[in-house]
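Chain A, query sequence.
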Amino acid sequence: MKYASLQVKHRKALAIALAISLIVGTGFIGMTDEPISEPLDEYGHPADVGDGIIHSAIETSVSINSASVFNVADSVALSNALMQLTDGDVINITNSFAYTSPIVIDGVSVELNLGSNTLTIEIYNPPSPPPIPGPPPDTNPNLSIQGGATLNITGSGTLKVVRQGFGSAINVKESTLINTGAVINASAFGGASVLSVNNGTAELTGLFTDQNAPFSYSILASGGAKVTVNGNISSSIYADSGAKVTVNGNIASSIYVDGVDTVVTVNGDISDYIVSYWGGTVIVNGNITVENRYGVSAWGGTVTVNGNITSENCYGVSAWGGTVTVNGNITGENGYGVLASGNGMVTVNGNITFTGPECVGVFLRFGGENNNNVTVNGTITASEYITYSVLGQGITVLTADQYDAIIERDDNTYRQYTSSVGSVYVRRLDPWQPPDANNRFSDVPNAPNWQNAAVSWADKNGITTGSPANSSTFKPNDTVTRAEFVTFFHRMYGSPSAPRATFTDMPENTAFQNAISWASVEGITTGSPAGSNTFMPNDNITREQIAAMLHRYIGGGVSAPADRLGGYTDQDRISTWTGAREAVNWAVYYGIMGRNVTELNPRGNATRAEAVTMLYRVAEIFNIPAP
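Chain A, predicted structure.
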């Protein structure tokens, strides 16, 4: 900056003059003993009279590399510091105060150390009309970082930025904003945006909080911007032109994404809708909840939801020429589960459940060259199972019973319906293979012995194939380890994949690893001891531990309607850890557990026959479909 170089010259002249004054033994300002009367500015501070001396509550030290440290205690001192900034300078905020003028960091790298103080930047502009989706005009932001500048915010204090009216609270253009430990608390009202980044970088790893009025944006990112925010977001995000945005927190409003290579990743939940335009990508590692709007709309874009979608009175997913993957369930009331139009592609790796009159599971629309494709790897529950619309021909409705009669695919895995506007594939949920009266194992009694049905069922449905594996023996009275039981349980649900668990004692066996990871992700187990970083895979599992795992996953942790433990003489043997008694009572209430009419043996090690019997009973009682 031009004025920055001039200020450096002033400093050098000041240093020379001070040296001369020390040699001649005179005051620097003049050669007289008369008192000096300095003019004051509007705040009552000594004014800058152009002699290169900073007349305010600020101390400046010049290092060997010409970088300066400004200790700033008020707005006047901050104004003076901002006028002199050069590369490497540090502004130390030594007091909490408010600043009511725009701050511009242009072309230099500067550290703003808040200490434990609060710096408030508040600017009022006349409000503008509510904007349409897209960036509002950027006029005199509260804080601008531009011209290749870098602003590094340090300390443990708070930068509070309040924007009234249109424009941005914080604007980063072709520059970098870094916050490593401080809190940024920004708010925008009247059509403004909190954080606007254009072809720049904002790495806000310190806590970011915002408060927005309607029609205001929390984040605007464009032109290849890279934005990382740690904290919850209160308003909308708009990203285009190759921007990359990551939010490690929840979002209370909507997301708009437009343009090839534009990606928004949310590691949290969203309480409003998502719109992904042509080429844009949204990844949500959490749940979406929305009312009276589309949960997800993919207009030529791509959306992946690694959680559940709950949509009331509207569509859960709408793919208008876009691609949507939901790795969870879509539920709602008085609406549509999935709408696919204009070559929309949707995959739901969960169930679609919509209650209420005239609810639709899957809706296909528009003919011509459209080839919509919807795959549901779960069940569809809705009064109108599938509907489709051909231009000029109205709407055709299929009930679940009508859909059951459609042609199956060659691999016998999916049921398929193909209309002139696209296809729907719903994964076949075959019933469990029933147990045989005479099982194949040499060490398990045949019917009517209680062991036969469960052991035969587990064998025929691939939950366990004997001990050793694929042998003619089952060893029904052997104990079961924790790793073995969660593997049985995992197979009962089709052995779904899951991110590797972080337990420090994970076994080498791949099947055990996958099962333990799944159980951890699903909340079936939190380790042993509970909440620890170990699983204890080789410990024998007890009967009450099995009851607890089943209760968490199948029973949803909900208490049984009534207490059924009163008649058991060993109920006082139930462990005192949280949830143990509730889980055992739930298992007894539903007929899953009970060694006999008077004993539970809750702390006893479960046998292989007892473990598969408990799984067999929950599958029957709760109508769990085969994978």
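Residues 1-64, 129-133, 407-411 have pLDDT under 50 and may be disordered. Residues 269-429 form one domain.
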